[in-house]
Amino acid sequence: MIRRRLPLMLTIIVCGILASFYLIISSPRVYESSAVIQVDTPAAIDQGSDSSLPASRRVQLIEQRLTARSNILDVIDRLHLFADAPGLSETDKIGAVRSSIRIESIQAPGVSADSSMSLAAIVISAQAETPDTAAAIANDFANSVVNRDRENRAARIVEARDFLISEESRLTESLAELDRKMADFNARFEDALPAAQEYLQTELTQLGSSVNALERDIMALQRDRLALEEGPIGADARPSATLVQQIRTAEIELAQARRTLAPGHPEIKRLEDNLTRLNSGDESTSDLTVRQAALIDRQLDQLADQRRELRGRIQEIERGRSRAPQVARDMETMTRQQRRLQDRYAEISRQLAQVETQQLLMDNDQAERFVMLERALPPEYPAFSNRKKSAVMGAVGSFGLAFAVALALEFLRPVLRRTEQFNRATGTRPVISLPYLPTSRDIRNRRISMVYMIVLLAAGLFVAMWLLGNIPGLQSPAIAPTATEGLA
């Protein structure tokens, strides 16, 4: 079968191998270059006090900003990418650059991922069709990471500080307003405050005792008034007894006044003068009786006014105590609000102190920073080079296709060529088997086939060398990568 189908099989094999060569050589080469950025952490700073974002989170934010549409367009303009492809749209260019960039984070061993010390290094890789372009893209993005990390941290610190300062001012005003509101509330409902209930109970007891004492004093003065009114009936018979009674009453009134009034009070002065006049006897009994009655009346009026004031105060305390439950609830609400504001103010003050500490560390170059450890260099060999493997697979596929076609043609035209085949097909063994004698036509066809195969092999070898560019004076039709194709 192979001898009969050899021209066809050789044609399929040569064409398949040449097609594989053309596809392999014409495919563009891809070069990859990488830049390494080290996360430098100063040893003099306690990282537990650094409340900034973890480095991995910062890298994620930087990657999002680097792959933004505007930034990629700036990179394309800055590096003159796609100079030979003016027909490409911006979307295609941005998609090609995004797919060629890879940012990898190297975690520090033995450190939690949420820690600010979790990141050890960053590797930025770029792919392009030329070594110089791949290195230029990787270095451009690495420089952007190093520069933008500090810019982003500084901008974030400024934004956080401005927000915290404004929030602190707002909380200060809210606390001052709440303090004024609570002061007015305490002044308006002083008798209903929970803290004043024990004092009010004591005051209420004292007021009750004072009212009872005033009641007793009023009753005593009323008795003296009645006795004074009865005194003039027997005044002619016993004027000395009446004078003695008046002196006695004046002494009692003076003692009571000294007990209840201040030492320099005018009432005490008047009572002392009255007692002096009675003792000197320079007034008549009737005049003294009238003056004494008027004095008792004034004292009764004063005691009545004091009793009325004390009872008014008692009623005021009772009304305040009746409002105590509602006032207690309102006071508790304002107290909880004040406590929340104070807690929020303390938290804002703590965060502001941390932000100011971060600002101080950045100003003194003591904060965590990104350092370019290794710049990207133009690679010497293309990445993912599988040309030899592809060539072997193309050759194997061509041989397999040739055998498959030859076998299919045999099945389409079955011919009994040997005695064993005839025996299996008919069940009868032939008596005589004569060899086939080729005719002149068969000999001519074999010669033509031999010449065809020799010419085919020579042409295939020539085309293969042409594709590989090994023939002087002939340029390979393969699409060879240049400095202006693709990401170049």
From TrEMBL:
Species the sequence originates in: Paracoccus laeviglucosivorans
Coiled coil ranges: 168-260, 293-358
Keyword set includes Repeat: no
Keywords for the protein's UniProt record, in alphabetical order: Coiled coil, Membrane, Transmembrane, Transmembrane helix
InterPro entries, alphabetized: Bact_polysacc_biosynth/exp
Highest rank taxon of the organism: Bacteria
UniProt-listed PANTHER family: CAPSULAR EXOPOLYSACCHARIDE FAMILY (PTHR32309:SF31), TYROSINE-PROTEIN KINASE (PTHR32309)
Record-given protein name: Uncharacterized protein involved in exopolysaccharide biosynthesis
Residues annotated as transmembrane: 7-25, 391-412, 450-468
